[in-house]
Structure prediction request, 257 residues.
Amino acid sequence: MSWIKRSVALLAVVAALAVLAGCGSSGAKTTDAADAGSGDGAGADTSAVEDTTPTTPPGPPMTSCKTVVHIGDSTSIGLMSPAYLPKPEERIDAQYARVGVTNTRAEISGARSIVEHLKNQLNAEDVAKQVKAAGFDGCWVLALGTTDAADIAAGSNHSQDERIDKMMAVIGDDPVLWVNVKTLETKGDWANANMQVFDQHLEAAKQRYPNLQVYDWSSVVQDPWFTKDQIHYTSSGYAQRARLIADALAAQIPATS
Prediction:
């Protein structure tokens, strides 16, 4: 793309010089004629020359994040799965690359919560500690909260704020984009009412953490994107989820000019 931009810029300069050259010649003749007729230059052409230099349209929004770790639960599995997204360009790593990310680390596991452990797997806090201990320096995308909201509804003593604080304590001052949550369930632990409570606490947490951005996935996800279990997504839904999360990263943690 750089050679195209240089070519466009060169053409713009040539065009501008041609316009100015032509206008200058015409102006000189007019002034000469006026000077000959009146002797005081009162008839000189002083009209402004319109700038016809072409402008290059801005490129797509980009993020300042060059390295990203994506920590997610089962609602992120399809983002990297060839079974759901057979086209590599639709997967979340390719979508992050589209907005300027050069290195993506995916830490995704089914039924992952911030606190609880399923079958001895690492919880999200454990994963974050491992990532941080390895010297990670970049941005964090957290697609967490669905399992946490259900665990709280089932009777967990660990509140929404405690869970959010655990993750942010590990991450520190690094930029964070947290994807909020939604289901289509109307009853039980996985009911969307429980997801909405978690989202409210997540939104409030921005007051405690200036480096925290929340992507309001719950307001854009469409019902047809959900599978019959009303929690996870279809292939089309995952393609949209990958694209929109990447777009949110560019919009909410943008590249500086």
Q: What stands out?
A: Helices lie at 2-38, 92-98, 124-133, 146-153, 160-171, 192-205, 235-252. The chain has two domains: 1-57, 67-252. The mean pLDDT is 85.
